[in-house]
Amino acid sequence: MRIITGIYKGRHFDVPRSFKARPTTDFAKENIFNVLNAYICFEDATALDLFSGTGSISLELVSRGCSNVIGIEKDRDHHAFICQCLKKLDTDACTPIRGDVFRFLKSCRMQFDFIFADPPYALKELADIPDIIFTKDLLKEGGIFVLEHGKEQDFSQHPHFIEHRAYGSVNFSIFK
After folding, report:
1. What CA–CA distance (Å, rounded) separates 50 from 58?
2. Name one GO biological process term (predicted).
3. CATH number belonging to the domain at 26-175, selected among 3.40.50.720, 3.40.50.150, 3.30.160.60, 3.40.190.10
């Protein structure tokens, strides 16, 4: 896993083979961030990374200048790996929280400039995530939400949907 650009550009982290999480591929990550640059400036932005997995997106957001990133990951080993990566970068711009995403969202009182969610594609509540984000008013004015999902889901009829991008088997729906 590598950081694509920013102050930590090129840094590599070896994800243990035992991990269940599938990090967003470098190809897909680079392309979606190229698209997102037209929608948001990450410098000093606040961000929320849901289902952080290996922390790939959280690390990328910190590298791109986000002032505050909160990453939510339920798995103990994955959370520990994210903490190790952040320690190697010697940054406090990211707060990794070990916990359930839906519990976090239920109690969250913050708003963010950017929210990224990469749930397991088979998660039965996956289709509910955009509604939760907008019902809870978690995005700041002009904020962007990106949901990574499988090809079976179609969010084009959602009232906040603005764009869909696919890179191989990785699909992203962008909401505003």
Report:
1. 9
2. methylation
3. 3.40.50.150
